[in-house]
Amino acid sequence: MSISNPNLPKSILALRSYSAQMFLHDLLAGITVGLVALPLAMAFGIASGVTPQAGLYTAVVAGFLISALGGSRTQIGGPTGAFVVIVAGIVARFGMSGLALVTLMAGVVLLLMGLTGLGAAVRFIPRMVVIGFTNGIAILIASTQIKDFLGLRTGAAPSEFLPRMKLLVAHVASVNLSALALGLGTLLILVVLPRVMRRVPASIVAVLVCTGVSVLFHLPVETIGSKFGGIPRGFPPFAIPNFHAAHILPLIPSALTVALLAALESMLSAVVADGMTGDRHNSNVELVAQGVANIISPMFGGIPATGAIARTATNIKAGARSPVSGMVHSLTLLGILLVAAPLASYIPLTALAAVLFVVAYNMGEWKEIGAILQMDLAAISVWLVTFGLTVFADLTVAVGVGLALAALLYIYRVAETTTVSPVTDEYIRDGLPHVLQGRILPPYVTLLRIHGPFLFGTTEKLVEATVNLEAFAPVVIIRLRNMTAIDSTGIHAIESFAKRLHESGRTLLLCGAMQQPSKLLSGGRFVDRVGQENIVENIQAALDRAKEVYAAQEASKAS
User: Fold this and answer.
1) C-alpha pair distances (Å), 99 with each of 36, 56, 156, 248, 428
2) Which of 186-190, 488-492, 521-525 has the lowest mean pLDDT?
3) Which of 273, 404, 460, 510 makes a 20 to 30 Å CA pair with 331?
4) Separation between Cα atoms, residue 234 and residue 448, nearest integer Å
5) What was the pLDDT predicted at 417?
6) With 50 as the cut, is the pLDDT of residue 537 above it?
7) Distance, CA of 296 to CA of 81 (rounded, Å)
8) Exposed, middle or buried, 518 (CB in 10 Å: 0-12/13-18/19+)?
9) Which pLDDT value is given to residue 1?
10) Chain centroid to CA 10
11) Mean pLDDT lowest for which of 60-64, 316-320, 328-332?
12) Is residue 448 a contact partner of residue 465, using CB atoms and an 8 Å limit?
């Protein structure tokens, strides 16, 4: 098989042009992201209802496999917040053997998705559903950390949101002021340090400072050592999990949910990485890697893993050039396990709770809520139902119901925009300003058109058609005359395209939107990002505006 085969892992494709200088970049980036991942992996393990070392073992084993076998050059894999809620529920009901079975079954599903080319199906999950359960998961993660952050003495907390909150309120008088002070100090460092020193891993600094203060002043706070007996030094232990056949059927929905979340988050992370690096990931190769990683992870005491958006972004900002950086990240964590694992026993749980508060805030995508609230009532309802079911019911139910509602809304959108009417003289007259025939496109304009409904499941076509922006003229016009409908996913896709064009020094114009798209595109946030003056009625107005924009660009270059 040729090394140029695009279906090979990116780690192999990178060998074509790999150099010592690239390795130096990868080494430094891998060590940096490894240090960032250290407190996160332990925190995700604890929040998931397992041990902190389970999170570390996942980052070492699954993280290495995802980088070595994956379809993204800079993706970092490991435990993430997306799984915390569902993993904790599985452990509470079925124990570690049930979790191992779910992780393995999810890995098989991911492997099959990658091998059969079904990785592309992930894009059929509408943005309203994604934002809904992302908001909900963030709320749930934060709620699970209140106990440790305040140092409350409550005993085991329920896995359901409302009973857990009632328990916390009932025991709020037992707050440990030392734990609260350390937690607030950790939060302060996590918020302030990135604004002052961007290249310093804030999470590791915050945890080290908090741990040092706790040890120096002998503060009476719960630590990893007091709760879990510390973290054993050594390699992740290999053992075949003890599966129970009776658990297979009841755990199938959970396994499918884990697989769906893993596929979705890994694809989102890979897209973010592509946007930051200009690379193009291979979805199916990435899902094969995710599948293998999740099949192997439980054999080393690990939990479900996927691509981690924040750690991937950190990896890129630290100078990563290839998947080698991700492998170095895992080896860095392995080195810490072999050398410094006993020191982790001194880490206060309140510090890790503070880290997860920040993770929950960052993953919540709260800014997207404003854009959703500008949609119609049906779209808002899909988001709200998904969010509500995620928090108050069950993530598996939330995803299923959210997808079902979104599918019904899709059918409604298509039906609503399908019309049958006679052609009149007025119709012909109104259409003349939109006609392309007879118009000459100037060389400074690239014209694109969207034909049909631009809803979730179709927005990837815009990305595919605009991979190489260097081939585009200074002004890009999207003709919307034949775009019959749009939703929040479509709006987000156009916003992202406008941002890419702006960063490349180009300008986006939109023209000829029909009634339903025009109404949604007039939302305040979208207008702010594209510019009201760049949304016009027809192609002639767009060409006139393009002439003005190009003249301004040329004048700016001359000055």
Assistant:
1) 26, 16, 19, 11, 63
2) 521-525
3) 273
4) 57
5) 66
6) yes
7) 20
8) middle
9) 47
10) 20
11) 316-320
12) yes
| CB distance 318 to 28 below 8 Å | yes
Q: H-helix or E-strand containing 44? A: helix 20-47
- AA identity, residue 338: L
| Class of domain 432-558 as given by CATH | alpha beta
Q: Two tokens at 526?
A: 């979208």
Least confident interval from 62-66, 187-191, 227-231, 420-424: 420-424
The strands making up 507-511's β-sheet, listed across from edge to edge, are: 445-449, 475-479, 507-511, 535-536
Burial-class residue 252 by CB neighbours within 10 Å (0-12, 13-18, 19+).
Answer: middle
Contact 480, 514 (CB under 8 A): yes
Q: Which 3-state string (H, E, C) describes 260-311?
A: HHHHHHHHHHHHHHHHHHCCCCCHHHHHHHHHHHHHHHHHHCCCCCEECHHH
Cβ atoms of 58 and 329 closer than 8 Å? no
Domain ranges of the chain: 10-363, 432-558
Query: What was the pLDDT predicted at 296?
Result: 97
Given a contact cutoff of 8 angstroms between Cβ atoms, the answer to whether 1 and 8 are in contact is yes
**What's the burial of 460, exposed, middle or buried (CB within 10 Å: 0-12/13-18/19+)?**
middle
In the predicted model, what is the mean pLDDT of residues 179-185? 96
**Residues 6 or more apart in contact with residue 217 via CB below 8 angstroms:** none
Query: How many whole angstroms separate alpha carbon 519 and alpha carbon 532?
Result: 13
Report percent pLDDT > 90 for the chain.
Answer: 51
Q: Which long-range contacts (CB under 8 A, 24 or more apart) does 407-411 make?
A: 409/126, 409/378, 409/379, 409/382, 409/487, 410/126, 410/455, 410/456, 410/457, 410/487
Helix, strand, coil share (%) of the chain residues, nearest 5? 70, 5, 25
Residue-wise pLDDT for 83-121, tens only, equals 888 898 899 889 999 999 999 999 999 999 999 887 666
Average confidence score pLDDT of the chain: 88
Sequence letter at residue 547: K
Whether residue 109 contacts residue 293, with contact meaning beta carbons closer than 8 Å, is answered with: no
